[in-house]
From TrEMBL, chain A:
<protein>
    <submittedName>
        <fullName>PIGS transamidase</fullName>
    </submittedName>
</protein>
<dbReference type="GO" id="GO:0042765">
    <property type="term" value="C:GPI-anchor transamidase complex"/>
</dbReference>
<keyword id="KW-1133">Transmembrane helix</keyword>
<keyword id="KW-0337">GPI-anchor biosynthesis</keyword>
<keyword id="KW-0812">Transmembrane</keyword>
<comment type="similarity">
    <text>Belongs to the PIGS family.</text>
</comment>
<comment type="pathway">
    <text>Glycolipid biosynthesis; glycosylphosphatidylinositol-anchor biosynthesis.</text>
</comment>
<dbReference type="InterPro" id="IPR019540">
    <property type="entry name" value="PtdIno-glycan_biosynth_class_S"/>
</dbReference>
<feature type="transmembrane region" description="Helical">
    <location>
        <begin position="462"/>
        <end position="484"/>
    </location>
</feature>
From TrEMBL, chain B:
<comment type="similarity">
    <text>Belongs to the peptidase C13 family.</text>
</comment>
<feature type="active site">
    <location>
        <position position="115"/>
    </location>
</feature>
<keyword id="KW-0337">GPI-anchor biosynthesis</keyword>
<dbReference type="GO" id="GO:0006508">
    <property type="term" value="P:proteolysis"/>
</dbReference>
<dbReference type="Pfam" id="PF01650">
    <property type="entry name" value="Peptidase_C13"/>
</dbReference>
<dbReference type="GO" id="GO:0016255">
    <property type="term" value="P:attachment of GPI anchor to protein"/>
</dbReference>
<comment type="pathway">
    <text>Glycolipid biosynthesis; glycosylphosphatidylinositol-anchor biosynthesis.</text>
</comment>
<dbReference type="InterPro" id="IPR028361">
    <property type="entry name" value="GPI_transamidase"/>
</dbReference>
<comment type="subunit">
    <text>Heteropentamer. Part of the GPI-anchor transamidase complex, consisting of PIGK, PIGT, PIGS, PIGU and GAA1. Interacts with GPAA1. Interacts with PIGT; this interaction, via a disulfide link, stabilizes the expression of GAA1 and PIGK and links them to PIGS.</text>
</comment>
Length: 498, 280
């Protein structure tokens, strides 16, 4: 199905005193619109409109920019803005400003604003601003990833289809695997850890989807691979190429909630057996991985937690182990970010990103997710409804129930509303509308009454009725012919007799 | 999917259970398998060894075992349920284990066995599924991107007719016999009194026994299994709808489950002190 999407991003570029470039086309304040087209395939394209407003700082903003560090400035500026979802504000500071450290020309805060160092004239500023908007909202690659099922095969990079698909909800399961309970009695205070560390992140993501969290402990669950013993480091090593085979034997025992159909994200904490301790994961070059963890796209992550060998070798078994949940959650939450596609790699070295802290992700990262999911939702609705229409064309006598019809109408209306909101730059309402559209279209498409088996193709109808009616029809037709012949003869005779 | 019932169709159940066992051995968990059987063999009053289903004569290998998870059994194995599983048009009350929860990155293996004819497959002696319906079901799956690649294996008489009508991309199909040929069974076991396996599946299983999760065997090897001298019928295959060259497709892409993994290189930093204040 063809789709032309317009994404509007409101961007404010605010010049602090001493940072206005000399070659501005118009005096401040002024507006400008920059467009960029991302063409996904022959019939799908995404046009982005960056609605730029160029202005000077207000007095209060200037006071905020007088702060000692970029982080404090960002915090102060956040209070002054009313940044709605999807909008960006960029403050241009003078080239000599000490807010940004040496060598850094762009600082991205944890809300929706950034500090840019002036210098190099208007052209250089524009380049930096364009890079910055692509980082903080969406880029050609993030849009193509969201529309991955429309990208022609061969154009997709190896990283395609890694991120979790947009869904109404996700289930997160934390599992503790203890293969050797005789040696290790492992205690993890998962409930406290979830409330302290995980819940703030999920609260931030609650706009995107519903999350449910559960946890379990599995005993005598072993990895499918036997680690090698390495004499030099006197530890056990799992090489990178054996990692893909680790997950499957465990998965059979993980279980999942029978009731929900949401995708499940599994986070496993593996405490190696005493005979295989300490266990380290090796990367492709043979170096031990600092996090001792790996993850699988669209599935979850596994972390290996080594128990310290006790000082006295005569310590009684089982050893009591209190898991350091902070260290564990730092890894699991990082993996959660990566599963959703929020990575902070591939940035130019002069960019400095503020750490989001306990919230897990910055506001603009949430926006990135919402842009990608909204685009993906709208494309999915378009494909689903087109496919449904084609099904109806093919099977002419299919019966559409009233509720299926109303879901289709609702899906179309919501999708149109989502497109309109996107074109106006209202990311929040566009996302909500796209969610409603997807829910309705999926309900319509997967309605159990639309099974094409129930509708007979024409050749089967002939095959059933002809053997019944043809033998009956033969004598009927013959006698009809006889009647017609007799009637004609009778008509002729009276004229003859006279 | 085993589409037959009754004692004399023992071999179809043994076929299906053997493939099920191989697939589990190569790493696919039960949560990712939908098994449809009439399941009337193990506890059949005519079974001299109750609670077992054997695939080799002299009762070497009990494929029923104690961890078989049958998702659709007995009278639930119908054409309607099969198509519902494939297309996803399932009543909302169906549990997770009876659904095909696949997405655009899933490779799906479909194995069907039973009695078939030119263009149809008989389900439980009371209904049929035609090759047109199957092709349409696959197209519905493709429209919703419910599969990345699909491998369809069928072991019935005139099996090649079932894949003639496929038109959706990324499907590879194998059949045990061509149109006009019958697929023959392998060997009877005099103790049990019925034929235990069909020839094609028997040789496919011998081939699969050599495969382990890290194996690099590809699809061309699978096409060579069961030449006419052993099988009497001529196995066929169809790869024109498939994007990749069968040479490059690993057996474990469909029969096993090898996941893509990435090493986690960074962590986020959590502030313990703040965490206490921010929680509810």
């Amino acid at each position: 199905a063809s789709a032309q999407l317009q994404l509007a991003v409101p961007v404010a570029v605010v010049f602090a005193p001493g940072s206005v470039p000399g070659d501005l086309p118009k005096p401040l304040p002024f507006r400008d619109v920059q467009e960029m087209e991302i063409s996904v395939n022959l019939r799908t394209s995404v046009t982005s409109h960056y609605e730029m407003i160029y202005r000077r700082t207000t007095a209060r903003e200037e006071a905020a920019l007088d702060a000692a560090t970029a982080r404090e400035a960002d915090a102060a500026l956040h209070l002054l803005q009313d940044a709605s979802l999807g909008s960006l504000t960029m403050y241009v500071v003078p080239e000599t400003s000490s807010l940004l450290p040496q060598g850094i020309s762009v600082y991205v805060g944890k809300h929706r604003s950034a500090l840019v160092r002036a210098g190099g004239g208007l052209a250089a500023l524009h380049t930096r601003l364009r890079q910055l908007t692509q980082v903080m909202s969406f880029s050609a690659s993030s849009v193509s990833a969201a529309l991955s099922d429309r990208v022609p095969d061969g154009h997709l990079g190896p990283g395609a289809r890694r991120h979790l698909k947009s869904s109404l909800g996700y289930e997160i399961t934390f599992s503790l695997l203890n293969p050797d309970p005789k040696s290790h009695a492992v205690d993890w205070d998962i409930e406290d850890a979830v409330n302290r560390y995980v819940q703030p992140v999920l609260d931030k993501l609650s706009l995107v989807a519903n999350f449910s969290v559960d946890s379990q402990i599995l005993y005598y669950a072993v990895l499918g691979v036997t680690p090698r013993f390495d004499k030099e480091s006197s530890s056990f090593l799992l090489s990178a190429h054996s990692l893909p085979h680790v997950i499957n034997p465990v998965e059979a025992r993980l279980g999942s909630s029978a009731a929900s159909l949401y995708p499940v994200l599994n986070f496993l904490l593996y405490v190696p057996e005493r005979s295989h301790s300490p266990l380290y994961i090796q990367d492709k070059d043979g170096a031990p991985v600092s996090t001792n963890a790996f993850h699988s796209p669209r599935w979850g992550g596994i972390m290996v937690y080594n128990v310290e060998v006790p000082a006295s070798p005569q310590a009684s078994l089982p050893l009591h182990v209190d898991v350091d949940m902070e260290r564990v959650m730092e890894v699991f939450l990082a993996q959660l970010r990566l599963l959703f596609g929020l990575s902070r790699e591939e940035l130019p070295p002069e960019f400095l990103l503020e750490s989001p802290g306990n919230e897990g992700l910055a506001d603009w990262e949430l926006d990135r997710l919402l842009w990608a999911h909204t685009v993906e939702n709208i494309a999915t609705v378009s494909t689903t409804l087109t496919s449904l229409a084609q099904l109806l064309d093919k099977i002419g006598n299919i019966v559409i129930k009233d509720d299926v019809a109303s879901e289709v109408y609702r899906a179309v209306a919501s999708a149109q509303r989502a497109l309109a909101e996107l074109a106006m730059g209202h990311l929040h309402s566009a996302f909500q509308a796209s969610k409603e559209a997807v829910t309705s279209s999926e309900r319509a498409f997967f309605d159990p009454s639309l099974l094409h088996l129930l509708y007979f193709p024409d050749d089967q109808k002939f095959a059933i009725y002809i053997p019944l009616f043809l033998p009956m029809a033969v004598p009927i037709l013959l006698s009809l012919a006889k009647i017609v012949r007799e009637a004609r003869q009778r008509k002729k005779e009276p004229t003859k007799m006279d | 999917v085993c589409t037959s019932r009754f004692w004399f169709n023992y071999r179809h159940v043994a076929n299906t259970l053997s493939v099920y066992r191989s697939v589990k051995r190569l790493g696919i968990p039960d949560s990712h398998i939908v098994l449809m059987l009439a399941d009337d063999m193990a506890c059949n009053p005519r079974n001299p060894k109750p609670a077992t289903v054997f695939s080799h004569k002299n009762m070497e290998l009990n494929v029923y075992g104690d961890d078989v998870e049958v998702d659709y059994r007995s009278y639930e194995v119908t054409v309607e349920n099969f198509l519902r599983v494939l297309t996803g048009r399932i009543p909302p009350s169906t549990p997770r284990s009876k659904r095909l929860l696949s997405d655009d990155r899933s490779n799906i293996l479909i194995y069907m066995t039973g009695h078939g004819g030119n263009g149809f497959l008989k389900f439980q002696d009371s209904e049929e599924i035609t090759n047109v319906e199957l092709a349409d079901a696959f197209e519905q799956m493709w429209q919703k991107r419910r599969y990345n690649e699909l491998l369809f294996i069928i072991d019935t008489c005139q099996g090649a007719s079932m894949y003639e009508r496929f038109y959706s991309p990324n499907i590879m199909a194998l059949a045990s016999s061509q149109v006009g040929e019958d697929s023959l069974s392998h060997q009877p076991d005099l103790g049990i009194g019925v034929h235990l396996m069909d020839r094609y599946t028997f040789y496919v299983l011998e081939f699969l026994e050599e495969i382990h999760p890290a194996s690099q065997s590809n699809m061309n090897d699978l096409f060579q299994v069961c030449p006419k001298s052993l099988c009497v019928s001529t196995p066929g295959h169809r790869t024109d709808l498939f994007q990749r060259d069968p040479q490059n497709v690993l057996i474990t892409d469909f029969f096993g489950s090898v996941r893509k993994v990435e090493i986690t290189t960074d962590t986020i930093s959590l502030d313990v002190d703040l965490a206490g204040f921010e929680s509810k």
